[in-house]
From TrEMBL:
The lineage of its organism: Bacteria, Pseudomonadati, Bacteroidota, Flavobacteriia, Flavobacteriales. Coiled coil: none annotated. It comes from Olleya aquimaris. This is Putative enzyme related to lactoylglutathione lyase. Gene3D superfamilies: 2,3-Dihydroxybiphenyl 1,2-Dioxygenase, domain 1. It holds the Pfam family Glyoxalase. GO terms for molecular function: lyase activity. It comes from the Bacteria. Transmembrane segments: none annotated. InterPro entries: Glyas_Bleomycin-R_OHBP_Dase, Glyas_Fos-R_dOase_dom, VOC_core. Residues 2-113 form the VOC domain. Keywords: Lyase.
């Protein structure tokens, strides 16, 4: 089994699609204003957004995007006007993370984990 895609809700797909394109994802399915699918710039994963006009603020969704040059990516995105909740920071679980939110308030974490993503020192053998 392999993770194919993640789908999130949005009250405004135009804003959401623009935000995720700004992060570097490529729009591959345009069924606006109700649905869009984007492709990650690396790997095979896709990310989709569907319209949910009645969605309520929540703290249930966190989306992680990994980049090998996290600090450079954050700098480029800040130059494009993206606001971050936290600067890149080394975490105790051996990942480097920067936190932000999409236009609907979904938590986004840009990170670099390298070998520690799937094989931290405490991995189960």
């Amino acid at each position: 089994m392999n993770l194919n895609q993640v789908t999130i809700s949005s009250k405004n797909l135009d804003k959401s699609v623009a935000f995720y394109k700004l992060l570097g994802l490529k729009l591959i399915v345009d069924a606006l204003p109700r649905y869009a699918r984007l492709e990650c710039p690396d790997g095979e994963a896709t990310f989709s957004i569907h319209l949910n006009e009645d969605m309520q603020p929540n703290q249930n969704t966190t989306v992680y995007f990994e980049d090998e040059d996290l600090d450079h990516l954050v700098l480029k995105l800040k130059q494009k006007g993206v606001n971050f909740l936290s600067e890149p920071k080394d975490q105790p679980w051996l990942w480097r993370e920067a936190h932000l939110q999409d236009p609907d308030g979904n938590a986004i974490i840009l990170f670099k984990a390298g070998q520690h993503r799937k094989s931290p020192p405490w991995v189960i053998s």
